[in-house]
From TrEMBL:
Species whose genome carries this gene: Sinocyclocheilus anshuiensis
GO biological process, any: regulation of transcription by RNA polymerase II
An example molecular function term from Gene Ontology annotations: transcription coregulator activity
Protein name (database record): Calmodulin-binding transcription activator 1-like
Top-level taxon: Eukaryota
Record gene name: LOC107695759
GO cellular component: nucleus
Amino acid sequence: MYVCVCFVSLSSPIYSEPLTPPSNPSLSPGNSPMREGPFEKPTLPAPSEWSEFLRASNSKVERELAQLKMSDPEQRELYEAARLVQTAFHKYKGRPLREQQEVATAVIQRCYRKYKQLTWIALKYALYKKMTQAAILIQSKFRSYHEQKKFQQSRRAAVLIQQCYRSYRKFGRLRPHRRAATAAKVHSLLTKRQDQAAHKIMRFLRRCRHRYSPTATSLPTGHAIHPLPETLLIQM
């Protein structure tokens, strides 16, 4: 919809005519007594003439203004056209601002994503560094514990070896005395056993000698007396 705005100027045909009413030439300022003679003193028109002149001029202006009035449909159409013009102007004026806002929004979003990415990378690096330090600490503690345990085992083994070696040396020094004591014990044991055996044999021979002595009064028939061996008699 195109809106055509008309500006009325004073040079238009509406205002081309003089504002004085032509119907009564006697009331015009040109017909006043001021122009009767060139050397006469000018006189002002009467107030009644001026009031009639102004009234006629006002009535003509009112008629012309009444002709400029628009009807309701025309006013409505003009209002709609003005509203459309204002809307289009606001859109045209707000387009650069909206474009700037879109560009600023895109820049802010890109910067925020970059900041978030860098923050996440920094956080991951900090966590990785912390985990690495923890792993190094655990490894060093485990190595020190393992070395300490190994050293304690070696120390216990060395102490045990030293104890065994000392006991071995001590036993080697005391071995001759132990051998002599052991031999003495064995000899005494053998002597004791021999003595016990000899006593048993002597008791047995005494019994036999007492049983087969010549003083025995009665002997069973058919039994001969056998003499004892000389060795046994000598031992007795």
